[in-house]
Design a protein that fits this description.
Blueprint: H1 5-21, H2 30-51, H3 58-62, H4 75-84, H5 86-92, H6 97-108, H7 113-120, H8 124-139, H9 147-165, H10 168-174, E1 175-183, H11 185-188, E2 194-197, H12 199-208, E3 216-221, E4 224-229, E5 237-244, E6 247-254, H13 257-262, E7 265-266
Parallel strand pairs: 1-6
Antiparallel strand pairs: 1-2, 3-4, 3-7, 4-5, 5-6
Helix pairs in contact: 1-2, 2-7, 6-8, 7-8, 9-10
Length: 268
């Protein structure tokens, strides 16, 4: 539900404190009681996360063109993102806290709507509607499944793979010789936007961002194949592509929070 090993530890610790203070003689079903407590703690943490982003993502945006190893996400949380699926974590983070809890408990852990309703102190019909809305947001629109669109999705995935593996030649094959990369100031930490021109320069900048590629995944952004960078599922960079057939002619790197919130991001 949280997508963060640190916050999960906090939730379990808070549940233990409540367990320690509770009158267990009044508890008829201890596993159900603990599940309810942990769910409500997670719901509170998700609500707090939406109102104040305590974890700074600055190092993941300003270092995009020249990432360093010293500020990587802790190994345990990176493994958590890998196990759940980074793209799914990204979309989950766009759900409301109530939608997220209802979807995770029902669709991922097969908890009955009636039980979830008790945990969330809502009506079962309302919880069913929350899960349905979450499901619709995660699946997104159907889109146009043309062969051209499939080739572009494959090109985006190949770009990510080449970046992760350091395959310079593969990047050059994907890029138009006159490709242009545009990055906003939030992505680079510079005073103004950055523009790079030419396949050689753009391919080198992609390789410089290889340490960040682990936290990057393919997705549909406004219905088009793109990449999203999201340590712990917290969206911090969107990379969009312009194509001529299946050749990349332009790359737009966006990290401004106001613009990130405007994107419609779904799983393909």
């Amino acid at each position: 539900m949280l997508g963060s090993a640190t916050e999960a530890d906090d939730a379990v610790q808070e549940a233990w404190l409540r367990y320690d203070r509770a009158d267990l003689a009044q508890v008829r079903n201890l596993p159900a009681w603990l599940t309810t407590v942990v769910t409500r703690v997670c719901l509170n943490l998700l609500r707090a996360r939406r109102t104040r982003r305590e974890e700074s993502l600055e190092s993941f945006t300003t270092d995009w063109l020249g990432a360093a190893d010293h500020d990587r996400v802790p190994q345990e949380e990176a493994e958590l993102a890998d196990s759940i699926g980074l793209a799914l974590l990204v979309v989950l983070d766009r759900l409301s806290p109530a939608e997220r809890v209802a979807f995770v408990l029902h669709d991922m852990f097969d908890v009955a709507f009636g039980d979830i309703a008790h945990m969330m102190e809502r009506d079962p019909a309302a919880v069913r509607q929350l899960a349905s809305r979450a499901r619709a947001k995660i699946r997104g629109g159907t889109g146009t499944k043309t062969a051209d669109a499939a080739r572009r999705r494959q090109a985006v995935e190949a770009y990510l793979t080449a970046t992760r593996t350091g395959d310079f030649e593969a990047l050059l094959r994907l890029l138009d010789p006159q490709v242009e990369l545009r990055a906003d100031p939030e992505a680079t930490g510079a005073a103004g936007p950055l523009t790079l021109q030419g396949a050689l320069v753009v391919a080198k900048s992609a390789l410089a961002s290889a340490p960040r590629a682990r936290f990057t995944a393919p997705a549909l952004v406004d219905g088009r194949p793109a990449l999203v960078m999201a340590p712990l599922g917290r969206l911090c960079v969107v990379i969009r592509f312009t194509f001529a057939d299946s050749t990349i002619t332009a790359i737009d790197v966006t990290a401004a929070p106001s613009r990130l919130r405007a994107f419609e991001i779904t799983l393909d």
